Amino acid sequence: MAFMPTQCPSCQSQLQVSKLTCPGCGTQLEGSFLLPELLFLPREDLAFVVQFVKSSGSLKQMAKHLGQSYPTVRNRLNALIERME
Q1: pLDDT digits (tens, 9 = 90+) for 43-79
Q2: Which residue, 83, 85, 13, 5, is CA-closest to 43?
């Protein structure tokens, strides 16, 4: 399954969800829905966040999983936090 786009391919504006559909019964909801902030992260940052959660927030475990030093992983997390602010 493809990642959901978050930017318009034509003008690069932020896309907005306006319709949700249940694949089981076909029920559809229409309106204006906010996208979660995490969806706007690049794929590699989103993968980092997912692994961080799976590691119970342990940077030591993250460093081991990624094969990187603890300071490198800490710096990556700090940069990610800074971009989200």
Answers
A1: 899 999 999 999 999 999 999 999 999 999 999 999 9
A2: 5
